Amino acid sequence: MMAQESLRNVVQTKPRKVENDCLLCGREFYPSKCNKHRLFHGNKSENKADHAVVLEELVGKLQDTTLAICSICRTLLLRYDRVSKDAERIKKLITDTWRKMREKRCAESTPSLEVKRRREVMDTEEDDDDKNTASSSLQSTDSAAAKEKLKTALKPLQLKLRIFQEFQKASLQTAEYIMFQAQYTEGRIKEEFVKLRQSLCNEEAARKKALREEEEQKSQMLRKKIEKMSKEMSSLSATITAIEEEMKAEDALFLQNYDATLKRVSQCKPPDPENISGVLINVPKHLSNLKFTVLQKMQETVDYTSVTFDPNTAHCNLIVSDDLTSVRYSDEEQTLPENPERFDMFACVLGSEGFDSGSHCWDVEVGDSTGWFLGVMAESAQRRNKIFSRRGIWLVGHFCGEYKAHEPPQSPALLLVKEKLQRIRVQLDWDSGKLSFSDPLTDTHIHSFTHTFTERLFPFFGVGCNISPLLILPVKSSVEKNQL
Question: What whole-number distance in Å separates Cα of residue 394 and Cα of residue 455?
């Protein structure tokens, strides 16, 4: 009976005058219409009849949309039948919830006395700090400005150090590649000399010795360059470290030495590192026409190619054959040193030997390739970036289904070719200033350039598709080298 009376007192409490404040918990809420709820769900409790009167009265109150009860309290009341028979427990739950919510809201909106006290203490400490530092504020300001100026002066040195570090890393990678080249070249030399059997052992030893000497020479050259860079880096690092240590000194001492330190920074201007041209192993010197050179001493005849490829100039998408007479295009880039001799934008490669006099001829098998060009390139012509916008190149090629002749910076000229070209003969008469292209299979002239040559010219090749490689064809072995 006491529980029923308590629940009835809760229901019969008059609503507050403030609109949208919950009658039970006191929180603001947005009123909404409530559908009729069923409080009993088939429970056969002994106290069902005792609670019926109170719950029916409660249902009537909850259905009244003008009664200010929030949805949380309304839900708790409608679940009364699930709690079985303890109305006081529901009332206590609602009351405790309302009290905790109100305490939380008060705590969030009103700072505690402890928080106020801490703020007052912090304000007092800040005032004391301001008074203590007032006497040295001028000196600190001067020191900060000087340090900032010195930091600005240090930035070029730090940048220079990073340049040296990157260059040293690239040089070490080049040194590893030189070792790879030496090992690869030695293997090729060994294979060739195995074919010549025991009678060629002496020549093999001589070739390997020459290779080792060149490897040592190139490695020594690179080691000296690396050692020089290391000394420059050590000096630069020591200067930077010393200046940074002086910046950590007391303000008075720092300002006293500031002018001398700044002068030291301005005087420390080491030169930028420079790429070393020709640092890679000269592979063609050891492999170009190797069999011809050796067998010539034995008065025997072998195949001889008047031109071979220089792999140190080949673009990273070009793969040069072991005997340096064939080159093919690959979609996968190789990891190669970025030496100055190498083409970096277009898939090109040069011949291993340049010509500055006389007449020279070489035949190239282009096969079914749909993108290729052949010609010559001046020794001073730029090999980096956009090479076809500069002078020093003369070529004939097949581009986009058309045969064209090109002498940069002029625009390419269309060539009228009746049959598809499979083989091209390139003839250079350096003294007469004439470069001619023909089809040796049909003995048909294709195109000629005339120019007064003044410097060494290198055979120039390019291939832009992987359908078929470019192959330099051998000449008759009975032909002497100096007659080509």
Answer: 14
On average, the pLDDT of the chain sits at 77
Task: Give the integer Cα–Cα distance in Å for 153 and 269.
Answer: 12
Which of the residue ranges 207-211, 414-418, 420-424, 473-477 would you say has the lowest mean pLDDT? 473-477
Look up residue 478 and give its amino acid. S
Q: Any idea what the Cα angle at residue 442 is, between residues 437 and 445, rounded to 5°?
A: 30
Confidence (pLDDT) at 1: 46
- Name the residue with tokens 């009729």: 36
For residues 484 and 475, the answer to whether their CB atoms sit within 8 Å is yes
Pairing of strands 402-406, 393-399: antiparallel
Domains of the chain: 217-301 (no CATH), 318-473 (2.60.120.920)
Cα distance between residue 349 and residue 312, in whole Å: 8
Question: For residue 179, which amino acid is it?
Answer: M
Bigger pLDDT: 397 or 130?
397
Strands (E), 411-456: 413-414, 423-429, 434-439, 444-450
Query: In the numeric block, which tokens belong to residue 264?
Result: 């030291």
Residue 376 belongs to what H/E stretch? Answer: strand 372-378
State if pTM tops 0.70: no
Which 8-state DSSP code applies to residue 436? E
Which candidate, 307, 275, 272, places its Cα nearest to that of 288?
307
Closest-CA residue to 307 (of 350, 367, 368, 346): 350
Residue type, 164: F
Helix (H) or strand (E) holding 313: none
CB 58 within 8 A of CB 11: yes
CA dist., res. 221 & res. 34, Å (int): 93
Return the closest-CA partner of residue 342 out of 315, 382, 371, 369.
Answer: 315
SS3 per residue for 82-151: HHCCCHHHHHHHHHHHHHHHHHHHHHHHCCCHHHHHHHHHHHHHHHHHHHHHHHHHHHHHHHHHHHHHHH
394 near 378, Cβ under 8 Å?
no
Answer with the residue of higher pLDDT: 318 or 56: 318
